[in-house]
Prior knowledge:
The chain contains five helices and no strands. It is mainly alpha-helical and 168 residues long. The protein is elongated, with a radius of gyration of 19 Å.
Amino acid sequence: MTLLFSTLRVLHIISGILWAGGAIAMYFFIVPTIGATGDSGKQFAGHLMGRTRFTPFMMIVGATTVVAGTILYGIDSNWFQSAWMRTPTGIGFGTGATAGILAFIFGVMVGNTNKALAALGAQIQGKPTPEQMSALQALQKRQALVGRLNAYFIMISIFFMASARMFG
């Protein structure tokens, strides 16, 4: 059991660092840079999302983080049945886990919105039609919201995961 626990913990922490780092860098630095650099930013974004493994990588490390964390919490809580879950430490880890799961859901939404933006961008030839512009604006608005929620829920998760042992 110790080897399993240690392996899951290493997977959870390393994949969590990669996931959080990618999502936070994307939200706070890369997306604003894309928006500020016009057509070259759109070209960069198209390459990053369409021709690199960034999105699948983020999905893999996000899922690894959530699955390993869920199993770790299950082990610590006797599969979600022990009084430990109601201790300050258990509540801290549970809050972090909930925030992490929400971040993963919003991350999936980010990926899906990126795909929709790429598909719409491929349809636009020259100046967008009013319908295309409306769809583009709606997708950009959704992307801004889910990207923000993804980044902030990841940061909330990090806070609770890093500090949960200090609560008890």
